[in-house]
From TrEMBL:
GO terms for molecular function: solute:inorganic anion antiporter activity. GO terms for cellular component: basolateral plasma membrane. Residues 129-230 form the Bicarbonate transporter-like transmembrane domain. It comes from the Eukaryota. The gene is Slc4a11. SUPFAM superfamilies: Phoshotransferase/anion transport protein. It is a multi-pass membrane protein. It is found in: Cell membrane. Belongs to the anion exchanger (TC 2.A.31) family. This is Sodium bicarbonate transporter-like protein 11. The lineage of its organism: Eukaryota, Metazoa, Ecdysozoa, Arthropoda, Chelicerata. It comes from Caerostris extrusa (Bark spider). The chain crosses the membrane at residues 163-183, 203-228. Keywords: Cell membrane, Ion transport, Membrane, Transmembrane, Transmembrane helix, Transport. GO terms for biological process: monoatomic anion transport; monoatomic ion homeostasis.
Length: 242
């Protein structure tokens, strides 16, 4: 892409191109380049004001080797600003979902205003509130709470995908529940049987999906939970008998 852009300018007016690209921690523990976005900058003497252009490629493309350079020039500072904005994965996803130029500009402007508000009003660290992190998570996710459920029924072939996922997860969750329910029935001498295990997992999953902010998290009975139940039951029985 850089080579094609250079071909648009005469030889004696060829600008200097620089690129900024994000990095992330790979599975092996090292760092790798984030290939989902790229910020390119250049200086041109004939331009008297800064210009910003944002393009979303229709098909994936190999941009070649990129570098992360530092400096104090206007083009580089502008590029670093937009690189910081595009480093937000949720923001990039919102940009991919827009369909018109006006929507694209509105999303970009809204995100810039939110960043400016956060910088101008930093959170106070002098007060210690109970469950501060939990309330912050709820405040950040509150405007997406409805869409977490509605998105499963809106869109092309979404109903088919949702129903197939429901049946798949039903059988994936019910079988371990029956198996560990039978184990709990044996360990607790019938106090916690299969029926109670199914009811408990159903209620726990519904409450967590409605109040936990993550409806896609699967809550199911596991072997450590069965061992914990056996240990607590044995401890209570020994105390009661004693």
């Amino acid at each position: 892409m850089v080579i094609r852009l250079k071909s648009l300018f005469p030889y004696n007016h060829s600008p200097t191109f620089r690129t900024i690209q994000g990095t992330y921690v790979s599975e092996g523990g090292g760092f790798d380049y984030d290939q989902s976005w790229l910020c390119a900058m250049c200086n041109l003497a004939s331009l008297q004001k800064r210009h910003v252009a944002i393009a979303r490629l229709k098909h994936p493309a190999n941009m070649g080797r990129t570098l992360h350079e530092k400096g104090t020039k206007n083009a580089l500072e502008t590029g670093r600003t937009f690189a910081t904005i595009f480093a937000d994965m949720d923001f990039r996803q919102r940009l991919l979902e827009v369909h018109t130029e006006a929507e694209f500009k509105n999303v970009l402007l809204k995100h810039a205003q939110d960043l400016a508000a956060e910088q101008s009003n930093p959170p106070s660290e002098t007060r210690c509130r109970l469950a501060q992190g939990l309330w912050d998570d709820i405040r950040r996710r509150s405007h997406l709470y409805i869409s977490d459920f509605v998105d499963g029924f809106v869109g092309h072939k979404t109903i088919h995908k949702t129903l197939s996922t429901i049946f798949f997860l039903y059988f994936a969750c019910i079988l371990p529940t029956i198996a560990f329910g039978a184990l709990n029935d044996n360990n607790t001498y019938g106090e916690i049987d299969v029926r109670k295990s199914i009811i408990g997992q159903t209620l726990g999953g519904l409450i967590f999906a409605l109040c936990g902010g993550q409806p896609l998290v699967i809550v199911m009975t596991t072997a450590p939970l069965s061992l914990y139940t056996k240990g607590k039951y044995s401890a209570f029985i020994s105390i009661y008998v004693a």
